[in-house]
Amino acid sequence: IGAIEVYKSPQPSAFGSGYALVNILPKYFKGEGQEIAVDVGGGSYGTFNESLSGGLKQGAFDGYVSQSWASTDGHVDHSRAQQQSDYTNLGYRINENWNIRFLANYVDSQTLAPMPAVTPTSANGVSWPGAERYDTQTTFTTLTLNHQYEKFGGYLKAYRNDTDFDLLQEVTEGRRYAGGTGGLWSCQEISLYGIRAKEKLHLWPGGEVLVGADLDVSELKNTQRTFSGTGIPGINGGQAERVWNFPRTTLISPYLAVSQMAGGLEGFHIIPSAGFRYFSHDTFDDKSAFQGGLVAGYGDTDLNVNYARGVNYPSPIALMNMVLVGSAAGDANRYWDRIKPEVVDHYEVGLNHRWPENAAVGVTVFKDKGKDRYRAYMGGAIPTLFNDPIGEYEISGLELTASVTPLASIEFTAGATWMDVKAKGGDGIERDRMPYTPDFQLQAGVNWKFWERFRLFLDLQHLTGLYGGTNMRGSFNYAQLTDANKIGDMTLINTRLGYRFDCKALRLKDSEVSLAVNNILDQDYEYAKGYTMPGVTFFVGVNLRFL
User: How many other C-beta atoms are found inside a 10 Å radius of the C-beta of residue 126?
Assistant: First the structure.
């Protein structure tokens, strides 16, 4: 990972389908020369990780490769997990303005699912896992042609992601997560590929034009069969094998955004902006998404006013059982193309002030208004209507953020968010709770450098009013979340202490040994009902950088 960008709300000029985005910027070797890094660590519950990385930049060529392995025995029975990753990022500078880059990332992982601590019932919000073991193999590649000139720059990118996701019921030592005998194996074969093009132009003073287009294609096939090769009554419809062929879907989404700065950042300034993205889908309805914003400020104080629409197209889970080969709802009847994408309109007003190099504070008020919620069809009578015709929801919130750097060696950060929910379903009844939408959350952190080579990180997360219930998308009516669905309030504190060192004789530079302690308060908490997370855990590691 080279860097992480977080978009907390829809931004049609930055990304397409979805309401928010975490953008992982890949790491590549920037400095002239070469380096090798070795990272080894271990800790509680048999946890172990290692990685070996190397980078080189020589003339027009640069390359960075990395291999890593991580594993753990897990903190409860049958929760072992392991993952192997291989990463390559190669670049070649064609001339001063153009370069080409190839990236490849492969991951092979396995995770065992533990039994819930509480026997599932319809009243307690606990559910069995979908399988006893999950195996995942995924390969992601990109080929990018970049260019940068004084007044414009951009890229043309081709990408492909192939993933095999296996869900297995092992049926070992009498372990059963579903009725029947013999066990099931389900394999999802997913392919995502396409082309992205973007150009950023600075054609006049203070102005910026962003233009681009995304072509995204998805393919998915799901095969489910029994280990024994015979049918299981009540589980597999009595069939030994079932196959879902999801339709290949193609989404083309061109976009355009324009912004203009008037004035200067050191004095009065105003920055209006507007953007638009059009979604042309070959299976579902086409949609348009707009965004608009205004920044007005003086010096280090800014007032922001923004609006943006997010569009969310159905994932394959919404289509399950509608494309089962040989079924009455199979792909010949094309029931899925009656589904409209969901939309969310996001409104936001924020005020921020900075004291350069010392502190910053901000307050933001926001509202999300969602509609056209679609139901997930998992079986039974085929619906005649897939989008809620009158249902909607609103999430209103207030967010406060602050950072303080009283000394060059220490920084404090904090963010607090309050949210209020109103959700109305097809029955017209209004509810005040939605799954995984907490009433309040607080995050805070400390970054302290001391005694020249020591660094201490401390972070806190506090959540209240959090409810589960992600399996409630099978109806247009919002079920009332009760105390049985409530996930306990939690306060988590984690810390990490590192010591950096050099050794010229071994050509070591900015190497580090570290000790991390998570859940210092030994909180008994969970993110899903019936599945308790670990208590206090310890981890020690060493990172060696050879230059």
Answer: 19
- Cα–Cα distances in Å, from 465 out to 4, 223, 438, 484? 28, 39, 5, 13
Name residue 169's amino acid.
Q
- Please report, rounded to a whole number, the percentage of residues in the chain having pLDDT higher than 70: 89
CA–CA separation, 155 and 198 (whole Å): 6
Nearest to 364 by CA among 378, 381, 346, 391: 346
What is the rounded distance in angstroms from the CA atom of residue 112 to the CA atom of residue 119? 18
Place of tokens 């629409």: 309
Ranges of H-type helices in 113-181: none
Quickly list DSSP for 33-97.
EEEEEEEEEEEGGGEEEEEEEEEEEETTEEEEEEEEEEEE--SSTT--EEEEEEEEEEEEE-SSS
In angstroms, rounded to a whole number, what is the distance separating the alpha carbons of residues 34 and 23? 27
- 62 contact partners, CB below 8 Å, separation of at least 6: 28, 29, 30, 55, 56, 90, 91, 92
**Distance in angstroms (rounded) separating the CA atoms of residues 107 and 86:** 7
203 class by beta-carbon count within 10 Å (0-12 exposed, 13-18 middle, 19+ buried): exposed
* Closest C-alpha to 227, from 185, 186, 164, 257: 185
Amino acid 68 reads: S
Q: Considering the entire predicted model, what is its pTM?
A: 0.90
Mean pLDDT of 482-495: 92
Task: Spell out the residues 6+ positions from residue 484 whose beta carbon is closer than 8 angstroms to its own.
Answer: 123, 124, 125
Is residue 532 a contact partner of residue 117, using CB atoms and an 8 Å limit? yes
Written as one string, the DSSP assignment of 359-405 is: EEEEEEEEEEEEE-PBPP--SSSPPS--B-SS-EEEEEEEEEEEEEE
- Among 318-327, 333-342, 388-397, 417-426, the least confident range: 318-327
**Of 477, 460, 478, 482, nearest in space to 529 by CA:** 482
Which of 12-16, 316-320, 359-363 is the least confident region? 316-320
Residue 373: DSSP 8-state: P
Q: Position 528: which residue type?
A: A
Helix (H, G, I), strand (E, B) or coil at 485: helix
Alpha carbon distance 132, 178 (integer Å): 10
What is the distance between the alpha carbons of residues 41 and 355, in angstroms, rounded to a whole number? 39
Residues in the chain, total: 547
According to DSSP, residue 389 is labeled S
Alpha-carbon distance of 397 to 376, in angstroms, equals 27
AA letter at 343: V
